[in-house]
Description:
By secondary structure, the chain is mainly alpha-helical. It has a single domain, classed as 3-Layer(aba) Sandwich (Rossmann fold). It contains four helices and two strands. The longest helix has 16 residues, at 19-34. The chain is globular.
Amino acid sequence: xxxxxxxxxxxxxxxxxxxxxxxxxxxxxxxxxxxxxxxxxxxxxxxxxxxxxxxxxxxxxxxxxxxxxxxxxxxxxxxxxxxxxxxx
Length: 88
């Protein structure tokens, strides 16, 4: 019996402000978004009391630190996939 894959309702990431997220998770999410494979809202859970802007800055810094070629490879015109990911 074959099932049709269903998209996730939401992706919850615990420890979104931690070291693992900084080193691996943000880059992975960014690459999924760049390949149009991320099609659900993302909820980040953390102990830190950060604003959405704080988290967005942290995520962008982590992605850029992981390699600027990641940003260039996902470039569409002048808009980076970051804009789409940041809205989630």
